[in-house]
Amino acid sequence: MRAGSHSSSSVPDGTRQAGTVTRAVEASLARIAARDPELLAWKYIDPDRVRRLASERDSLPEARRGPLHGMLIGVKDNFDTSDMPTGYGSPIYEGNRPSADAAAVALLKSSGAVIVGKTVSTEFAGWPPAVTRNPRDPSRTPGGSSSGSAAAVADGMVTAALGTQTLGSVIRPSSYCGVVGFKPTFGRINRAGVKPLAESLDTIGIIARSVTDADRVYRALSSAPATNFTAQAPKLAFCRGPNWHLADDDARQAIEHFIEALRAAGLSVGEIDVSTLEPLAAAAKLIQDFELWRGLAFERTRHFDQLSPAFQAGVRAAETLTFDDYNRAQRLGRESRRRFPDLLAGHDAILSLSATGAAPAGLGSTGDPVMNSTWTLLHVPCVTIPVLQGRSGLPIGLQVIAPRYADDVALRVAHWLHEFHGRAQRAPAEAGAPPNPA
After folding, report:
1. Total structural domains in the chain?
2. Most exposed residue of 11, 63, 334, 373, measured as fewest CB within 10 angstroms of its CB?
3. Active-site residue flag, 43
């Protein structure tokens, strides 16, 4: 079943009393039925299956409930699922029924989550745009490739959703849709059962309504200890770039205003020069294209005519890349990963833009991943939080970047900044003035 949602509150996670999961599921299904015909966030939902899962969760005694008990989660359609079709965003795999769950899906289930359905992915988590629309403005893209996951969370259909990022496919759509997106350190979440696009870049990420919900899902998937959200104010560095010149004036002004607000509140925010990282975005794109040409060998050699014209063109372009091209790009990535800790110079995290601006008008593109691909190649954890806003009123994400393996730091800093923004928004409203749009 294909189904379609925007509420101001998160979907309940069903942890308080018997029957709560069923009530949360019914609210979710009603929201999807009302909204998804317009937004097209879901590739597959079976309401009877979801209701059965909710009933099973409600019947469990307290002692057998997992850490994600009753949390409603969407799963991108490039994750294998044994109880739902997995199409990888391509007609080649229409109706495909995997025999096993992806590792991340199995861990969600064993942690007590209710997987509501499969969210729309772009073709093989690449391009061109899929059918999904942005809940903030349906005439605009939700971003990609985790299009359905970001839209479903932003519209209040589910509490969280899984996505994947090869260049910018978790952080950018989360920014466009105004939700939290978390791309962990490369390899922190096992990718078994996820259709590869580029094996040295692909990272499983989490899209959620709050940093704490993203953290809960991350801990269930990675076995990481709980993040300490009560720590002191972080040491931050503002980063204009790399590729700062590609961001629009609206986005640049929004982040600079936020940095000014942090400094005005007494927080020390340094600035760092990351111009040496400028070539990494192009290197990441080259690595992606070189690896997808080989990784999708079956599809391009046996089913080329079933690839979209845009994907066919990308495959043809990728064929021209040489091993020397690829090796140079990989060497640049390795060298940059070694040097990156020195750039932080005593700071906990870097602050940068999550996208070049608000969601672009129209549905002909998923937007430019250039503000994300550098960090993806560096294999570092990134969190986007919806604390910036353009003149159009649409969200622009603030991206928090921490060193490799410091995923807890990235989440802690993001949570602190999200809370700071909330306090700043409440203060003028409580004083009778309109809230600051930043």
Report:
1. 1
2. 63
3. no
